[in-house]
Design brief:
Elements lengths: L11 H4 L20 H10 L2 H4 L19 H26 L1 H5 L4 H13 L9 H14 L1 H4 L7 H7 L4 H10 L9 H7 L28 H11 L13 H24 L5 H12 L13 H33 L13 H16 L2 H30 L6 H7 L18 H12 L3 H11 L8
Helix pairs in contact: 2-6, 4-6, 4-13, 4-15, 6-11, 6-13, 7-17, 11-12, 13-15, 13-16, 14-15, 14-16, 17-18, 17-19, 17-20
Keywords: Hydrolase
Pfam family, one: HD
InterPro entries: dGTP_triP_hydro_central_sf, dGTP_triphosphohydrolase_C, dGTPase, dGTPase-like, HD/PDEase_dom, HD_domain, PHydrolase_assoc_dom
């Protein structure tokens, strides 16, 4: 029998603490009239990593015509759905727990937490989406220039490098002093869908929160501190329980990519309007009125159907959250909410069609193939130059010297050598590459490979 270390039920009055890293307790209402959680949202909106999402594809490369979503528009929409989910769940929570009202916590404050966390949910994604994650992992796992580093780092650090995870990269960015976001503990915890490191003794496949990992090993102390402040308990020796609001952030993402990726697929002509309509009907049920689709274009009808569908999914998700809220705090519930709502079967059918007709379409596969080449090429060039500089000086060439001069001015070039663990150096390199937009990565790849020259 598996032995759990979980000791008791988490308390909402601690789970919704508004403190930040390095700060003492603050009142819910700030001098500017904004709650601390609204400040989180505003800080993300104005941050450089968030702006970079405008040139990172969601599924499709940006076409010359027909609007499709970028990571930026996707994140804004997920945040909007997240706010609705959070406010709906918040109304339930403040009625069930009067102590929250005494602390000044409103349903709107809870909506702001989920909105801010949802806004950041893709902030750690590299160029070229999930193909980019695989490309970075494959470089260290399979490429000769990547595998050179294995003997210089610890086993748990190597596990981070050969399994790059956008969620962990996002947590790193959100707690890093480099970006100055300093989000509240509650928002960070709601962001963290996978509260575990990359290397664990055994993964419990029944728990959705252990499917991936949520922080790199050098952010373990940050995560432990956050968990202690909020009263988030461990479920085993190396895994924690999810913050309950993380289930809502996950649901907001699930709802948006299911419905809006389908809408994009229809816009791109990969799925017919008629088939899209049939996929959405089971969710809408009696709310579907064919008369409302008359005298409109298919594009206009898609917008109406999308709004109605998302509204229905939000209502279903809030109801299921309320049903399982206590089990979440006990650590007994660990599933995706969208897998158990009444429309779960319809969402599964949409996912199946999307895989066949959208995610495996030629235009998407071509983008992924290009992403593998670009990221592997960039990592190879910079990694080789760094390795020669610090570990194989006799091979350090003029080309290596020129390559290293292309790194950002704040790149940590000092303090490394044969006796120093280079994990932080490699983390900085991955920060640089994964932080690029699709276009920047492609342009830099062309230049370092001699495919394109500046000014030519």
């Amino acid at each position: 029998m598996k032995r759990f270390l979980f000791l008791g039920m988490m308390k909402w009055e601690r789970l919704l603490a508004e403190g930040r890293f390095g700060d003492g307790p603050k009142p819910i209402a700030s001098e500017q009239g904004r709650s601390e959680f609204e400040i989180d949202y505003d800080r993300v909106i104005f941050s450089a990593p968030f702006r970079n999402l405008q040139d990172k594809t969601q599924v499709f490369p940006l076409p010359d015509q027909a609007f499709v979503h970028t990571r930026l528009t996707h994140s804004l929409e997920v945040s909007s759905v997240g706010r609705s989910l959070g406010k709906g769940a918040g109304e339930f929570l403040v009625n069930k727990f009067p102590v929250l009202q005494k602390q000044g916590i409103t349903s709107s404050a809870i909506g702001s937490i989920v909105a801010a966390a949802a806004l950041t949910h893709d902030i750690g994604n590299p160029p070229f989406g999930h193909a980019g994650e695989e490309a970075i992992s494959d470089f260290f796992r399979l490429h000769q220039d990547g595998k050179l580093w294995e003997r210089h780092v610890r086993v748990d650090q190597w596990a981070d490098l050969i399994n790059f995870e956008g969620n962990a990269q996002g947590f790193r960015m959100l707690v890093s002093k480099q970006f100055g976001l300093k989000l509240t503990y509650a928002t960070l915890a709601a962001f963290t869908k996978y509260p575990r490191p990359s290397l664990i003794a055994q993964r419990d496949i029944a728990r959705k929160s252990q499917k991936k990992y949520g922080f790199f090993i050098n952010q373990l102390t940050d995560f432990e501190h956050m968990a202690e402040v909020l009263g988030i308990e461990k479920i085993s020796g190396d895994c924690w329980v999810r913050h309950p609001l993380a289930f809502l952030v996950e649901a907001a993402d699930d709802i948006c990519y299911s419905i809006i990726d389908l809408e994009d697929g229809c816009t791109m002509g990969l799925v017919s309007f008629e088939e899209t309509l049939e996929l959405l009907k089971p969710i809408l049920g009696q709310k579907f009125d064919p008369a409302k689709l008359k005298d409109r274009t298919n594009t206009q009808n898609l917008g109406v159907l999308r709004a109605l569908t998302i509204g229905q999914l939000i209502r279903e998700t809030v109801e299921v959250f309320a049903q399982y809220e206590e089990n979440m705090r006990k650590g007994n519930f660990d599933k995706a909410l969208t897998d158990i709502i009444p429309s779960a079967k319809a969402l599964a059918e949409i996912s199946s069609i999307s895989v066949k007709k959208i995610y495996r379409s030629k235009v998407v596969l071509e983008k992924e193939a290009a992403g593998f080449q670009v990221l592997e090429g960039l990592l190879s060039v910079f990694s080789k130059a760094l390795y020669h500089h610090y570990y194989h000086q006799e091979s350090f060439s003029g080309q290596d010297k020129s390559i290293l001069r292309l790194l950002p001015e704040d790149f940590p070039m000092k303090g490394w050598g044969a006796e120093v663990n280079p994990y932080p150096l490699l983390r900085a390199l991955v920060d640089y590459i994964s932080g690029m937009t699709d276009k920047n990565a492609l342009n830099l790849y062309r230049k370092v490979k001699g495919i394109a020259l500046p000014g030519v």
